[in-house]
Design brief:
- The protein is mostly beta strands and 681 residues long.
- 13% of the residues lie in helices and 34% in strands.
- The strands form eight sheets. Strands 11, 15, 16, 31, 32, 33, 34, 37, 38, 39 and 40 form an eleven-stranded mixed beta sheet that branches.
- The two termini are 40 Å apart.
């Protein structure tokens, strides 16, 4: 490209029929969750014909033109069958200066809807007659996004990463008159082995729905410590898949207390196994079926106390014959409540990192065979190598070692301190789990907001305020709000699906259905990038600086596959009518760029689930386009595995033969109901 956007001979085209150059930032990107901004400022005369923009990115993009949000994508796809989106930009452009602004979120880790591939953005602006006005090249500008944090906790093994937005770094970069002189020119990026095709389904769309009811308001004391430890780089640093990991090790630290005291350990996400503090062995927690956020009292002696968690933490993890542990997402999360100050260092008085990982240790052939039998496909992840001295005998010693023995092992090759890259002290869900309710605030008009929303009065020093909102029904989309606040207030949002009739909350444990927003000073608006499913939302205002926060609105921009509603049902029985409405709404919440198994926890295209959803969709909407799209996407999994995979497109190599056979049945049903022989072929 030259400076005016004309194609040069040395612009390398991508694979397949997509000949638009891919670009990326010249800045170093180390995080597995990178956010990169791209801009193109260009002069446009009054167009004689419509202009449309074609765009794709790896992994996801969000597009603005002259400051107005246009759309997000692309639809999930296999890397060898990537897709691009098309938008009519005529309503957004104006004669004179214009700006195209894009944020790209690239993941280096695979999940249940993405396979790692080279990062990049590709954009083409052209007339209806096919004349290219501009396309991506080195004349585009790029910069790392200062507002979006890259080093955050994973939402779950099925999805990407927790979203953190710092509004103090906002600078108006989407506007046409923004000065991007300090931004670097983009660089050409590899196109990989992509065959890029036009999107064959409509863009997601929906209404904006406001929170309906304020159910509760509480003052809470935040926990003393929160950690999220990413352990996979310590035993399989080159593996980016979510395949089952089989590993044996120990998460180790020492905690210093100035007095004898009882603290509370909270281990979200089903980490409920036994552990050691000093010489005392604490048993595994018996988790009720409906929750796993349990505060476990732990006695600390004055001085240093050795803390050892076997990993993975199954019930018998401290048994003499150590079992092998299979986990999808090898992280360890811990929240600590304490009344008095604590100091953490795995080498105790010698300092150093707060936590270390002891291991990995080898598994016996019998253990490995037993663990392989638990999964549905033989591709599993094990330690790439074992450090010097990391023997199975040593692992057995660790399970019953004294504090003195652990002290002697501080410099062992298999004792590996966690660096800042593997250790997070910010985890919104884990912090929420550790919040201790100190007071309940009464609101006379519980429910409806005032014309100016809700005023969040400041809490006493050391306390935060949290509020529970009900949206009235299950929704899936992009959360948004408008607030007036001082700079530096943290607004945490945590969505979940339902409350039991007896009042118990099903908090979507096992995932971080959460985000964090840090305010700038004054009145401000925010709309999340990522879609979430929920009915209820906890909003926590942290570090309010003794000033009130005005919450003027809280809403969700519903984002689902467009529903035509061509089908209908009505009878004299109200219950049957309600069942129809609930079923149709459930179908809508599970219709994205594929059918999904659920709108919250996984958002995954499970092939067997999609077969049933397609039949419901045909009755409710009579629109077979998403059905056809899902059948093709599942069938393309045969390029990787001997049977149609259980869920697609996914980095987990998993087969469920029943789901493969349901795909065959769904292909027949598609042909039967639609008569689309061309699509069926």
């Amino acid at each position: 490209m030259d400076g005016e956007g004309h194609a040069r001979d040395d612009d390398t085209p991508a694979a397949g029929d997509w000949n638009v150059p891919w670009i990326w930032t010249a800045q170093p990107v180390w995080a597995p969750n990178a956010y990169v901004r791209f801009r193109r400022a260009l002069e446009i005369a009054a167009p004689a014909e419509p202009l449309h923009l074609d765009i794709t990115a790896d992994a996801r993009y969000w597009l603005w033109v002259n400051g107005a949000f246009v759309g997000a994508g692309p639809a999930r796809a296999w890397p060898t069958h990537w897709s691009y989106d098309r938008y009519d930009l005529t309503p957004h452009l104006r004669p004179g200066p214009n700006a195209i602004a894009v944020i790209v979120n690239h993941w280096r880790a695979g999940n249940f809807q993405y396979l790692p591939a080279p990062a990049g953005l590709a954009v083409r602006l052209q007339t209806g007659g096919g004349h290219v006005v501009d396309q991506t090249g080195t004349h585009w500008k790029s910069a790392l996004a200062p507002t979006e944090a890259s080093h955050t906790a994973r939402i779950s093994v099925q999805l990407g990463f927790e979203e953190h937005h710092d509004a103090r770094a906002e600078d108006g970069w989407r506007a046409p008159d923004y000065d991007d002189a300090r931004w670097r020119r983009a660089v050409l990026a590899p196109a990989a082995a992509r065959r890029v095709e036009a999107r064959d389904i409509p863009h997601l769309a929906g209404e904006t729905q406001a929170a309906r009811t304020l159910l509760a308001e509480e003052e809470v004391r935040p926990p003393a410590h929160v950690w999220n430890l990413d352990l996979k780089p310590l035993f399989a640093p080159r593996d980016t898949s979510p395949n089952f990991c089989f590993v044996r090790g120990f998460v180790v630290s020492s905690v210093h207390s100035s007095v004898d005291q009882t603290v509370e350990f909270i281990r979200p996400h089903h980490h409920a196994g036994p552990f050691l503090v000093g010489t005392k062995r604490y048993p595994a927690i018996e988790l009720p079926a409906d929750r796993d956020v349990i505060a476990q009292p732990v006695e600390l002696k004055r001085g240093w106390n050795r803390v050892v968690f076997p990993y993975p933490g199954y019930r018998d993890a401290l048994a003499a014959d150590l079992p092998a542990g299979g986990v999808h997402l090898p992280v360890f999360v811990l929240t600590v409540r304490a009344q008095r100050w604590l100091r953490w260092a795995y080498r105790a008085e010698k300092g150093g990192a707060e936590w270390a990982f002891a291991g990995p240790f080898p598994l016996s052939a019998k253990q490995t065979a037993a663990m392989r039998a638990q999964v549905d496909f033989p591709r599993v992840v094990q330690a790439e190598r074992f450090p010097t001295g990391a023997t199975r005998t040593q692992a057995l010693r660790c399970a019953s070692a004294t504090a003195e023995q652990w002290d002697a092992w501080q410099n062992a090759k298999w004792m590996r301190p966690l660096t800042s890259a593997e250790l997070l002290t910010t985890d919104v869900f884990a912090q929420w789990c550790g919040d201790e309710v100190l007071a309940t605030r009464a609101r006379p008009s519980r429910g409806a907001a005032t014309p100016h929303g809700w005023e969040i009065a400041p809490a006493a020093r050391g306390r935060d305020v949290r509020m529970l909102f009900d949206f009235g029904r299950m929704v899936v989309g992009r959360l948004g709000f408008e607030i007036e606040a001082p700079a530096g207030v943290q607004i945490d949002l945590h969505g979940f699906e339902f409350i039991q009739p007896d009042g118990r909350h099903n908090l979507a444990t096992g995932m971080n259905n959460t985000l964090r927003y840090t305010s700038r000073d004054g009145r401000q608006e925010f709309r999340s990038l990522h879609r979430r499913g929920f009915r209820y939302v906890w909003l926590v205002a942290r570090d309010m600086r003794g000033r009130a926060v005005q919450l003027r609105r809280l809403d969700v921009e519903v984002s689902t596959y467009p529903q035509s509603g061509r089908g209908g049902f009505s009878c004299s029985e109200p219950l049957l009518n309600r069942i129809w409405r609930v079923g149709a709404h459930t179908l809508r919440c599970c219709a994205e760029d594929t059918y999904t198994d659920c709108p919250t926890y996984e958002q995954t295209h499970w092939v067997g689930d999609a077969r049933n959803e397609a039949l419901v969709d045909w009755v409710v909407n009579g629109d077979a386009r998403l059905w056809r799209h899902c059948l093709l996407q599942a069938g393309r999994g045969l390029e990787r595995l001997p049977l149609v995979p259980s869920h697609v497109p996914s980095s987990w190599e998993n087969l469920l033969p029943a789901w493969s056979f349901l795909w065959l049945r769904s292909c027949r049903e598609y042909l039967w109901w639609t008569g689309d022989r061309v699509g069926a072929e």
